[in-house]
Amino acid sequence: EVQLVESGGGLVQPGGSLRLSCAASGFTFGDYAIGWFRQAPGKEREGVSAISPPDGSTYYAASVRGRFTISSDNAKNTVYLQMNSLKPEDTAVYYCAAGSFERITTAQIMRNLNGVDYWGQGTQVTVSS
Question: Which residue positions in the chain have pLDDT lower than 50?
């Protein structure tokens, strides 16, 4: 059974930090691009960051570049999203997703939700004073 399990969300003040984790199981981790997406109330789901576990290449949305860092621990089949200098506009449900390299590249997965094969259940991030 394929699973993507996110954790680490919560309530944080503006300027604070959180680290999200995405634990993957049930598929070959190195055969998939892994992305983080978010969806705020009333808005479309958008790509935030993505990583290629085999070579470590990373991609970021302009809105988070310089504040968020994506990384992977291939021995644990886990991807992390370190979020610093959080802003109220970062408030959203954050989802982890995986897309097979047979159908999509790491650069493409952030822009093409149709390329996602598996989704996690999401974790809420709220940035508020």
Answer: none
